């Protein structure tokens, strides 16, 4: 007999980037779940055909409803209720800062996460083989078959490096940007338990995607983080705990700052976003518009990419710390950017000015109105044109 089997299934794996974000959210919210690997027969026979591609995490509710994409999963629980607290701040500036940092920590740091996992493959290899192997072992395959599948899947993921523009020439810029961010975050987490104060928000869940499985757990980057930014490492532990886990801050209340204030130590983190991510976002919007200009009229609701498994519209170039990178234009990223620009557009005049002043003083004013000519929406688990 299975004791207290939770009705919620999380399909994902400890080694997966986005699964860690949802595992963290479910624990923080006290929502019981059972985790299953993507090699589980239910994932292969029921989930994948429904969501039309291999992607995780996916959650399966008691009634069989599937929710895919970590943003949609969080929004599902925020709407359904039964959570301990909302991860959407209620006031204008905190809300938009949380959304901007969700975009940066989630989409903007995938390059660094992939770099430190796969460019340092020799240092990470035995751990990664163990971790990726777990999901295959779960179905009881013979070892030789596990090894063949592992070689193929790890090779497929490793091959993302050049797609993200990570080459021997660009690696120093990728690392310099990450090191600056790590140092800004470490200074922040010495003073404040979570990004916006005493409670995790969308911002923390965006960052934990990349800072858990890859940057905070793979041997090479985890050691770097422990040695050079121990307060960031402690925050990764805190994010995976089911309680507030902040004994370093005995005075801290489990709430955000009053009066829509943003911790001062977050300023340098936003400046990192302005310097090292905004140029890439500008490129994505420009390249999307250029791509659209070459196309015949596209009906609303049409799939954005050529097939469900394709995540990339086109490629484009941008500068990172004086080095040119060529990388992917991912329509999904535009949906995260739209959440920032939509929320900003929905503010009243006075609040708009207040938010704009704050973003301007951190070099991020452009972010608030950066929109492509067409919207990207999510429908039936896929990205479509709005
Ligand atoms: N935007 C999605 C991303 C999910 C995602 O990209 N998952 C990765 C694993 S961590 C994946 O399934 N990758 C499959 C592939 O690259 O083919 C989310 O927030 O859930």
Question: In words, what does this structure look like?
Answer:
There is one protein chain. With 386 residues, the protein is α+β, with helices and mostly antiparallel strands. Among the domains are: 9-80, Glutaredoxin, CATH 3.40.30.10; 275-385, no CATH class. The protein contains 16 helices and eight strands. The protein has helices spanning 17-28, 41-51, 70-80, 92-108, 110-119, 121-137, 143-158, 160-163, 171-191, 202-211, 219-228, 230-240, 267-276, 278-293, 331-345, 349-360; strands at residues 9-11, 34-36, 58-60, 66-68, 314-320, 323-329, 376-379, 382-385. Strands 2-1-3-4 form a four-stranded mixed β-sheet, with helices on both faces. Strands 5-6 form a two-stranded antiparallel sheet. Helix 1 links the parallel strand 1 (9-11) and strand 2 (34-36). The longest helix has 21 residues, at 171-191. The protein starts with 8 loop residues before the first strand and ends with a strand. The mean pLDDT is 96. The structure holds glutathione.
Summary keywords:
single chain, alpha+beta, binds glutathione, four-stranded mixed β-sheet, Glutaredoxin
What can be said about this structure in brief?
This protein is of the alpha+beta class and 386 residues long.
Please describe the topology of this protein.
Layout: E1 9-11, H1 17-28, E2 34-36, H2 41-51, E3 58-60, E4 66-68, H3 70-80, H4 92-108, H5 110-119, H6 121-137, H7 143-158, H8 160-163, H9 171-191, H10 202-211, H11 219-228, H12 230-240, H13 267-276, H14 278-293, E5 314-320, E6 323-329, H15 331-345, H16 349-360, E7 376-379, E8 382-385
Parallel strand pairs: 1-2
Antiparallel strand pairs: 1-3, 3-4, 5-6, 7-8
Bound molecules: glutathione.
């Amino acid at each position: 007999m299975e004791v207290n089997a939770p009705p919620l299934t999380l399909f994902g794996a400890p080694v997966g980037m986005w699964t860690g974000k949802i595992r963290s959210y479910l624990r923080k919210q006290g929502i019981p779940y059972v985790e299953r690997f993507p090699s589980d027969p239910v994932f292969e026979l029921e989930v994948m055909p429904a969501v039309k591609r291999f992607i995780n995490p996916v959650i399966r509710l008691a009634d069989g409803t599937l929710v895919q994409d970590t943003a949609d999963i969080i929004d599902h629980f925020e709407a359904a209720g039964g959570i301990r607290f909302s991860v959407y701040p209620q006031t204008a500036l905190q809300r938009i800062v949380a959304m901007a940092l969700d975009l940066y920590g989630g989409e903007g740091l995938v390059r660094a996460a992939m770099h430190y996992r796969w460019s340092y493959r020799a240092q990470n290899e035995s751990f990664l083989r163990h971790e990726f192997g777990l999901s295959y072992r779960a179905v009881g395959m013979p070892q030789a078959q596990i090894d063949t599948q592992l070689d193929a899947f790890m090779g497929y993921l490793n091959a993302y490096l050049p797609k993200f523009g990570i080459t021997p020439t660009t690696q120093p810029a990728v690392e310099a940007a990450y090191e600056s961010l790590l140092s800004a975050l470490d200074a922040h987490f010495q003073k404040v338990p979570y990004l916006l104060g005493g409670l995790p928000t969308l911002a923390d869940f965006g960052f934990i995607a990349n800072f858990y499985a890859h940057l905070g757990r793979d041997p090479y980057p985890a050691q770097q983080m422990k040695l050079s930014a121990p307060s960031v490492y402690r925050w990764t532990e805190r994010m995976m705990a089911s309680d507030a886990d902040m004994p370093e801050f005995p005075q801290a209340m489990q709430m955000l700052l009053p009066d829509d204030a943003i911790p001062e130590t977050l300023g340098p983190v936003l400046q990192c976003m302005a310097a090292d991510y905004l140029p890439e976002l500008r490129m994505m919007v420009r390249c999307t518009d250029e791509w659209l200009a070459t196309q015949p009229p596209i009906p609303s609701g049409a799939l954005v990419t050529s097939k469900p498994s394709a995540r990339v519209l086109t490629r484009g170039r941008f500068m990172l710390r004086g080095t040119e990178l060529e990388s992917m234009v991912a329509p999904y990223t535009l949906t995260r950017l739209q959440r920032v620009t939509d929320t900003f557009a929905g503010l009243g005049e006075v609040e708009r000015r207040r938010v704009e002043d704050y973003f301007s003083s951190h070099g991020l004013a452009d972010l608030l109105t950066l929109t492509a000519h067409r919207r990207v929406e999510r429908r039936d688990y896929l990205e479509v044109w709005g």
